[in-house]
Amino acid sequence: MSEIRFISGDEAFAQGVRLAKPQVISAYPITPQTIVVERLADMVEDGSLNSEFVHVESEHSAMMTAMGASAMGARVFTATSSQGLLYMAECLTYVSGGRFPIVMMNANRATALPWSIYGDHRDSLSQLDSGWIQIYVEDAQESLDMALEAYRLAESENVRLPVMINLDGFILTHTYEAVEIPSEEDVRDFLKPRETWDKLDFDNPVSMAFTVGPELNEEFNLLHHKAALAAIDELDRIDKEYAELTGRSYGGSVNGYLTEDADYILITLGSISGLVRDTVDELRAEGIKAGVVKIRMIRPFPTDELLKHLENVIAVGTLERDISFGYEGTVYTNVNSALHKGRNFADSYDFIGGIGGRDISKEIIRECFEAMINKETDRLVRFVGLEVEDDVR
Amino acid sequence: MKEITWYGRGGQGAFTASRILGAAAMFRGYKSLAFPSFGPERRGAPIRAFTKISDKRIVDRSIVKKNDYIIVLDDSLYSDKLLKELKPNGYLLINTKKPASFYSDSRIISGDIKANAELILKLPIVNIGILGLLIGIDKDINLSDLEKSITEYMPEKVARKNVELLHKINELSGGNGDD
Q: What is the span of the domain harbouring residue A288?
């Protein structure tokens, strides 16, 4: 029997990890991720989670410990945020290239300088090329559920890649809400203990984490690329199976709302999606055909799945908490590439907001739609919610 | 949607109380969110916490700007400016030693929660007790839901005494407890 508890996003994720039963947890605390690590340490201490908790001295070591344990065939968990993620960046490509199915929670937080503990997506988006699967969630329930779905995805034979689940710092990690926690029995068949042939085993030796020269290196990268792409359909399958079990489905790699006949669509990532849907409802009541597409998985990038929602739009806007200085938001770059591949020439805008914890209000979301409706194509890329004038031209 | 801002100082339990209230609303079948003012905290420094209660899923996760209730745990944090953060028909509840006549605005409901807390808890902690003032004025906030919430989400030893304090304040404020 499941139970409903009033808990935070961090606590919900910790509950999901408890149900996934990792044998090894290695993590270094950093705000706003700290609570997930504390709760898991409590669980190990009180015996509700039978896991080896390794106290490491840095994020770099956290990831390398996780990789070592994963190489032994263990299910492994770690979590980080912001500078911690950047500090372990070197290890991220080792883990993905070595095809170690580690699950990591990242509490999205601004990157220094200016130093800030508040949220945006620049930390994780800076690691799009690390070879990891990246998923963004919207509320505490989805956090718990994705902890479980993430292990299934990471350990799928056709994927075998690490998965990073992103929670908006504070807005999700520190906000309490009602969360349904499945019982161990509920999820027993959904997520069985990890079994793999790809581990350090004297009886069945395999070569792991090896060197490859130019004669085959590109081919290994091709395999990695194919495995990443396979995660799009795999997540869809896993999500459907999870829905049968719990009644909760999140829609695989993208989640569209009122997109079918929409003239104007705003693309979102993470916790702001709910407020955008609310605003779309208001605009619809005013006679404006607005819609939302939430990108849940940004690596691999769900090109076809996204394009399906954008077939009939006049304009599309990307609302993102990210800026690649000197160019544009990285989500926008990805969206535009998909649009071009689909020969979709709708006007495409980039709305950069919510940087360093800045609030994205309903008024700001309306501003984004108004820019699309008014065809303000002289400013395709702009900051929103600024206290000063955006005079970038 | 009902929106509530808690004003307190680090260590006074504003965030804990915002969660107890949110969970009580959950028990009543409402959707609710509770969160602190994000960022670093230290004991004694002013902090805020927020509770949102609605019959629909709550998607606006930003801080509250206009409140149905403002709850002030420490009267040194009060200023008339706070009243501007109230919605029409909103109330401000405040823990204070000052007599009721001190706050002339009819939207302010005051009570000496601290004196009662010192008797019952042996501590000047008023975060749960002050909810006794809220029961009297909001039909959706219910003594038995709060009791359940306190019992489930606070350590046993603290919970029992706080339930006692809550009953006491509810009684003193003329609240009728459960409807």
A: 254-383
Please state whether the peptide bond connecting residue A300 to the residue before it is cis, i.e. omega within 30 degrees of 0.
yes
A262 and A238 within one domain: no
Q: How confident is the model at residue B179 (pLDDT cuts 50, 70, 90)?
A: very low
Is residue A390, in this structure, part of any structural domain at all? no
Residue B124, preceding bond cis, omega within 30 degrees? Answer: no
Element (H, E) at A298: strand A297-299
pLDDT digits (tens, 9 = 90+) for A222-250: 999 999 999 999 999 999 999 999 999 99
The beta-strand segments (E) located in A112-249 are 133-136, 163-168, 176-181
Q: Number of folded domains in chain A?
A: 2
Single out the residue in A228, A246, A264 at which a domain terminates.
Answer: A246
pLDDT tens for each residue of A50-76: 999 999 999 999 999 999 999 999 999
Contacts of B15 in chain A (CB under 8 A): none
CB contact under 8 A, A171 and B39: no
Q: How many contacts, defined by CB atoms under 8 Å, are there between A and B?
A: 60
CATH for A22: 3.40.50.970
ipTM over 0.90: yes
**Mean pLDDT score, B53-57:** 96
Residue A389 lies in a domain: no
Inter-chain contact B63–A275, Cβ cutoff 8 Å?
Answer: no
Question: What is the CATH number assigned to the segment(s) B2-172?
Answer: 3.40.920.10
Do residues A16 and A146 make contact, with C-beta atoms less than 8 angstroms apart?
A: yes
Interface of B with A in 38-77 (CB under 8 A): 38-40, 57-63
